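User: Sequence in, structure out. Go.
Assistant: Echoing your sequence, followed by the structure tokens.
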Amino acid sequence: MYVKTALLGAAAAVALAPMAFAERASDGEVKIIYWQAPSILNPFLSGGTKDIESASMIIEPLARYDENGNLVPWLVDEVPTVANGGVNEELTQITWKITPGITWSDGTPFTSADVAFTAEYCMHPEGGCAQLTKFGGVASVETPDDLTVVVNFDSPTPNPYGPFVGGESPILQAAQFANCLGASAPECTDANFNPIGTGPFVVDEFKPNDVITMSANPNYRDPAKPAFAKVTFKGGGDATAAGRAVMETGEFDYAWNLQLAPDVIASMEAAGKGTPVAGFGPLVERIMINQTNPDPALGPDERAVIKPHPIFNDIRVIQAMSLAIDRPLLVEVGYGQAGKVTCNWVPAPAIYNSDALSCDTQDLDKANALLDEAGWVRGADGIREKDGKRFSILYQTSTNAVRQDFQALIKQWWEQIGIETELRNLDASVFFGGDPGSPDTFQKFYADVQMYANTFNGTDPQAYLGNGLCDNAPSPATQWQGENISRFCDAEYDALYDELTKTADIDERARIGRALNDMMVQKGGMIPLVHRGRISAHANSLGGVILNVWDSELWNVADWYRID
């Protein structure tokens, strides 16, 4: 079994950040701005980072990852391992021991029943759970007593830290969500917008796609935390406005995901009111390739069925599209030192970063030759055609300056090789929102290609690689939840992933992980573009901020405080 852990007790975990305050709610208000506005506070119903991270201030997992990628206890006394007896020798069972005395924000006890209910909620056969891969292989969850949770797997599971670990897999209160199982889950608006949690803050008011106001949790387990009495969590706008609001005007204390050109960030920092913070994790900007037919003339069920795309059914087409892209220029234009060229879906940790692929040199001649070989012939206007089908695609992404620059450049390169490209950009709060009624979410993928960035919690990509499994594709039957966004489906991939779930040796896990990465890219599930560093910014008057690229960026918000 492989896990990178720091088996800290509760006291040691608290000590991760400096203690600069002595009393709960003594530092007034903290203002946070995410230019992608949260649309729900239930991570099981949204794969959007802005939803997962805003919810992480309220609802929490049993364990999470620190800023170095170490697995640390959160609502438990220690992380279970084989060495400490928490994981059995057969690797089929993990036992979590909840720290005594933890309560929900409403004052009721936090117990093993809530943990077991969360598994039932996500694994319900009639529901759709955005984080279902976290529960892969779970056979049952037992609760021998109020403070003990036993997770049983249906086969040896070397990485048992999927369920209830990290910001993507928090615990829901059973009493609040009892009537929200299965198909009813998206209909529980009050619970999804105002979850009762164990975190440092409670929701006062949630206005979807706009603003969340929160107060310090009066029943938080550390009586000295959080330092802030109130939180204003503003969503919307753009990255430029968010950066200025922290580093130039001082209107906000923390701005997330400053997807801006390096010279723009440097200019903002020069104003002297805020500081950018950055770090590299597994975050990758990529173009997803639709494996279904997005023709709007088809109904929603047909548009979700995995079948050959009318253009992308020849891998040479996708290879040509990739070869036409000048990735070093994209890095220079969009990210500078905060970006690196990547050909991989999983560029980090380093042991999982494959060296089997090459994509750092644009080759328009080779791209054109591949399309010629595939039978796509240029028409009088330069756009290619085949069997009466015009090579015309819709390319969508969320709205921000860097992504629109990328779209413009890639459209130009693709048109040089005879691909007609229509550009579409969508409000990020809607695109990443997961609303099953919206036609514009990235899960529905009503376009030919779409561009965004994604990452995973922790340092083991098993659950993330599980997003490529056939049965994880979003569809009407799952309320459009699921992380296999391109609807990639390959029997060889599924079989190799199954092998990964049963492999304990870290070097062998890494070899399989790299092979799965290569398979996803080489078989046309996506076109990786840039390995992105996370860049956010905090006010110089805000202390305790520790950027974390392995979990929620707001993982230690309970430790934030005001510097006088």
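User: And one key feature?
Assistant: Confidence is low (pLDDT under 50) at residues 2-21.
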